[in-house]
Each structure stands twice: as structure tokens, then as C-alpha cells.
């Protein structure tokens, strides 16, 4: 072989070695980049998964809370219906009160009024004769009311109707009935 062939072969061998070194280095860089990207992808995957789990948990809690509120509202509405029915029965029982009980209720109310002689009294027609027999210290009118009584003097009117009585004590009565029926 000639010197030139030796030189060419050496150049060729050196070029192959250098190409192999460059390829090895490129492969290592490629593997490093792939490993880094794989790790970055896995990190992104875990971050996205964690975020999705947190969002799902928040959404679940919102739905759970919303359903709990709806359930509570339904229960409260049903309890209110029951309480209203009980108060309706109370009104009915008051309206069906016998004469002696009505007169007792009336006397108790009149005892709380100063100068009751200055007042006019209206009662339901069904109690009129029994109230008249009591000779109460008021002027009894033959102008009847549906239920309860009305006591008036000039511009002062005391509405003793059972509806008014129940309405004025409604909050207290609702709480009392609710506490007894639904023990909270």
C-alpha cells in the first residue's frame, strides 16, 4: 500500500471513529432528552391527575352540600306543613269552644283591660245569650263576629279573634309545636 492509501485509510478510520463518537454522543443526548421529556410528561400527568382529583372532590362536595340543603329544605317544608296543620286544628278547636270555655277566655281578656265599662263587645251569635247572662262590665252589641270577640272604644279596637290570637303568637306556637313534634 502506498503512503497515500495509508493516509486515506487512516483518515477514513478516524472519520468512522469520530462519526461513531458523534453518534454515541447524539444517542446519549437523545436518551437524556427522552428521559427528561418522559419525566416531564409523567410529572404533568400526575399534576393534571391531582388537579382533576381535587376538582372532582370539590365538585362532589358542592353536589353533596346542594343535595343536603335541598333535603333540609324539603324536611323543613314538610315540618312547616305539619305545624300549619296543627295550628289549623287549634283554630278549629277554638272556634268549636263550648260557651263556658269561651266565657272564661273572655273574662280573662277583659281582666287585662283598664276601664272595661267604656268598651263595646261583639261576640259570635252562638255565644251571645250565654255572655249576656254573665252581666260583664261592657256594653254587649248584637253586631256579631264570626269567631273570638272584638272589644272597641272609639278608635281603640282589641281584636280577640282566634285567627288574630293564633297569628300574634304564631312564632311562639310554631316553635313550641315544632319542638314537641320534631325534637331537635
TrEMBL record:
GO CC terms in record: proton-transporting two-sector ATPase complex, catalytic domain
A single GO molecular function term of this UniProt record: proton-transporting ATPase activity, rotational mechanism
Coiled coil: 12-69
Pfam family, one: vATP-synt_E
Key words, A-Z: Coiled coil, Ion transport, Transport
Family: Belongs to the V-ATPase E subunit family.
Protein name per the record: V-type ATP synthase subunit E
The organism of origin for this protein: Urinicoccus massiliensis
Amino acid at each position: 500500500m502506498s503512503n497515500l492509501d495509508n493516509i486515506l485509510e487512516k483518515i477514513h478510520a478516524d472519520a468512522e471513529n469520530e462519526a461513531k463518537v458523534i453518534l454515541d454522543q447524539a444517542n446519549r443526548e437523545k436518551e437524556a432528552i427522552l428521559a427528561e421529556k418522559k419525566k416531564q410528561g409523567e410529572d404533568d400527568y400526575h399534576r393534571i391527575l391531582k388537579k382533576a382529583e381535587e376538582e372532582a372532590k370539590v365538585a362532589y362536595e358542592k353536589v353533596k352540600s346542594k343535595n343536603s340543603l335541598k333535603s333540609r329544605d324539603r324536611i323543613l317544608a314538610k315540618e312547616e306543613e305539619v305545624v300549619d296543620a296543627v295550628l289549623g286544628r287549634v283554630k278549629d278547636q277554638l272556634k268549636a269552644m263550648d260557651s263556658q270555655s269561651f266565657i272564661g277566655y273572655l273574662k280573662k281578656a277583659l281582666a287585662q283591660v283598664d276601664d272595661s265599662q267604656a268598651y263595646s263587645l261583639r261576640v259570635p251569635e252562638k255565644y251571645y245569650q250565654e255572655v249576656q247572662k254573665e252581666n260583664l262590665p261592657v256594653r254587649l252589641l248584637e253586631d256579631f263576629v264570626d269567631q273570638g270577640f272584638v272589644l272597641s272604644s272609639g278608635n281603640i279596637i282589641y281584636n280577640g279573634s282566634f285567627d288574630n290570637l293564633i297569628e300574634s303568637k304564631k312564632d311562639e306556637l310554631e316553635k313550641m309545636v315544632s319542638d314537641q313534634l320534631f325534637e331537635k
